[in-house]
Amino acid sequence: MALVESWLPPSREHWELLTWLFQFFPLFTLVQWLVDYYPQGKTSIDSRLNIPGKIGWATMEAPGFIILLYIMFTLPQQSGIETLPQANWVMATLFTVHYIYRALLAPLVLNPSMSPIHISVWVSALTYQFINATCIGGWLAGYGPVTTSDWSGRILWIEVGLMIFAAGFLGNIYHDDELREIRRAAARNQKKKEIRQGEKSKDGKAGKGIDKIYMMPENGLFRTILYPHYVCEWIEWCGFWMIGGLGCVPARNFVFSEVSTMLPRALQGRRWYIKRFGKEKVGNRKAVIPGLV
Question: How many Å apart are CA 85 and CA 152, to the nearest integer?
Answer without folding.
Answer: 11
